Amino acid sequence: MEKVNSTIAYIISDSLMTQYDYFKVQKAALEEKHEKAKLILSAESNTLQDEIARYQKQAIGMTDMEKMKEEERLGMKQQMLMKKKDEMLAKLDDEQAEMNEQLYSKLSSFMKEFNKGRHYNFIISHQQGGSILYADSSLDITSEVIAGLNKAYEAEGK
Q: Is 125 exposed, middle or buried (0-12, 13-18, 19+ CB in 10 A)?
């Protein structure tokens, strides 16, 4: 069997995530949605807590039937709030997964084009604390890739 010479390069993925404009924009938008959801849920939770406190003060003068109905109403409202929280978190998780998929797709497409004429057999991702303990800096193509990705993103008009 003939020995094949392989050429390898790597990208520092931590740098990619902090310097790729597309990722920064998408991440900021997702963080804004998380914060908005957090504020909505917090406001609704505070409203519910106020209603519970009001009920506790008024419970002394209520009949058992009135207490039961109010506790049932408050319980239902709490369940609806929990359901809303779960739905919002699930939606945000779906958006995060979609963002990751789009990022991978953009990166993969770019890397195929980037590698034309360079003929790397492998372009690997390297991150601090990952499984690669040493990488020769002469194989680092991070800045070149980030510059190309940002140029392509800018050309998209985003």
A: middle
Under DSSP, the state recorded for 62 is: S
- Block means of pLDDT (10 residues each) for the chain, length 158 residues? 74 93 95 97 97 94 94 97 97 96 94 91 89 90 96 87
37 touches 95 (CB < 8 A): no
Q: 3-state SS string over 91-143?
A: HHHHHHHHHHHHHHHHHHHHHHHHHCCCCCCEEEEECCCCCCCCCCHHHECHH
CA dihedral 122, 128, 132, 133 (to 10 degrees): 140
Q: Residue 4: in which H helix or E strand, if any?
A: none
